[in-house]
Write a structure and sequence with these properties.
By secondary structure, the protein is mainly α. 87% of the residues lie in helices and 0% in strands. It is built from eight helices and no strands.
């Protein structure tokens, strides 16, 4: 229960921070606490939308699983030994795999388009999620080829930048590990009489936590520019397809000047 609650809190904070992120890119000014307070209501609406989207996904896929294997699951919960037939497994795979792919793609597109295109409209025009989707829908349907091309290009860019970021982070993780490992070995070797004491374990634990914190900062340095690049790309596409939604309009003018 605690893990679920913590996950919900983090997800809610993340939803609010989507607006802080877009506002920072739009204004070229980072003021996290100010933006968090300003867009708290919008963030809660986005969080609720994501919850509903997740619940619908779970209901569709979970419902299909129950229809196909409900009696088997009931038997397992009752402590019975169940063995599904080969035919039933084949039918389950033929139904659940395509269903999972279709639902997964639809949900990924809905969530991605909401985050990348609907959130800026919510921010710019002070709308809720559904109202912003209604505002965005005519642009999406009229210029579906542009957004289709964006999905393909963005997918490729995510793969390339993801691989590049992982490689750089891996190199940084190894390089940062060296000094912590050296200190850890010296602490272990310097233990009184070669006996590992509670103090030695405590020092090693502190070193490990410090290493994770340093690695977290390194990951932020590596991945924040990547996230900025992807989000600005989406915002530029949105502004190019409908000038009313262009949250980067002022910055474009500044660049032109």
């Amino acid at each position: 229960v605690l893990v679920v609650l913590l996950g919900l809190v983090v997800a809610a904070i993340g939803a609010v921070m989507e607006f802080a992120f877009v506002e920072s890119l739009s204004s070229d000014t980072v003021a996290v606490r100010e933006y968090f307070r300003r867009y708290l209501g919008h963030g809660i609406r986005l969080f609720a939308f994501r919850l509903v989207l997740g619940a619908v996904t779970f209901a569709v896929v979970g419902g299909a699983v129950l229809v196909l294997f409900g009696d088997l699951l009931a038997g397992v919960l009752a402590g019975e030994a169940v063995t599904p037939s080969a035919g039933r497994i084949v039918v389950g795979v033929l139904v659940l795999v395509p269903l999972g792919l279709v639902v997964g793609i639809v949900v990924a597109l809905a969530n991605g388009f909401t985050t990348e295109f609907v959130v800026p409209i919510m921010l710019r025009e002070d709308r809720g999620v559904i109202a912003a989707w209604r505002r965005f829908w005519p642009t999406l349907t009229e210029q579906w080829t542009e957004y289709g091309a964006y999905v393909l290009v963005a997918f490729g860019l995510h793969i390339v930048t993801g691989i590049a970021g992982s490689v750089v982070l891996g190199i940084a993780a190894v390089a940062l590990l060296v000094p912590f490992a050296v200190v850890g070995v010296l602490v272990g070797v310097g233990a009184l009489g070669g006996v590992i004491t509670a103090a030695t374990i405590g020092v090693v634990a502190v070193l490990f936590v410090a290493y994770l914190l340093v690695l977290f900062v390194a990951a932020a340095v590596i991945y924040v520019p990547i996230r900025v690049f992807h989000r600005q790309f989406a915002l530029l596409v949105l502004g190019d397809t409908n000038a009313d939604f262009d949250v980067l309009a002022d910055r474009r003018l500044d660049g032109a000047e």
